Amino acid sequence: MNEEEVFAKRVESLALLDEYEPLLAKSQAEALTMYLRYDLSLGEIAEEKGISRAASFDAVKKGIAKLESFEASLHLLEIKRRRDRFFEEAKSCDKDELPKLIHEYKEDSTHGI
C-alpha cells in the first residue's frame, strides 16, 4: 500500500469510528480513538492502557474489522454520503431540475444500496 492508500484507509476508518463508535466495546473504542483520532502509535497505546503492544495491535485491528462489518451490514455511512451528495447537487441545480433530482434520490433510497 502506498502512502495515499494508507491515508485514505485511515480517513475511512475514522469516518466509520465516528458513525459506529457506540456499538464497539469500550476497550476497542478507546484503542481506536487513541490510534485514529489522537494518532498514537501502538506502543504508546500499550503504555497508556497498560497492555502489550501486541494487545494494542489486536484491539485496533479487530476494532477496524468490526467497524467495517457494521458498515457492510448497516450502510449508515454510505447512506449519509449519498444524502450529502444529494443536498450538494440540490443546492447547485436549476430549479426546474430539482423534481427530477428528488425523484432519483427517492428511487435510489427506496431500492437500497
Short précis:
80% of the residues lie in helices and 0% in strands. It has 113 residues and is mainly α.
Q: What is the secondary structure topology, with strand pairs?
A:
Elements lengths: L2 H18 L5 H12 L4 H8 L3 H22 L1 H17 L5 H13 L3
Explain this structure to me?
The chain has two domains: 3-74, Orthogonal Bundle (Arc Repressor Mutant, subunit A), CATH 1.10.10; 77-110. 80% of the residues lie in helices and 0% in strands. It contains six helices and no strands. Helix 3 (42-49) crosses helix 4. The relative contact order is 0.11. The mean pLDDT is 91.
Tally of separate helices: 6
- Helix/strand order, N-terminal first: HHHHHH
Low-pLDDT windows of residues? none
CATH class of the largest domain, anyone?
Answer: Mainly Alpha
CATH architecture of the largest domain: Orthogonal Bundle
Helical coverage, percent range: over 70%
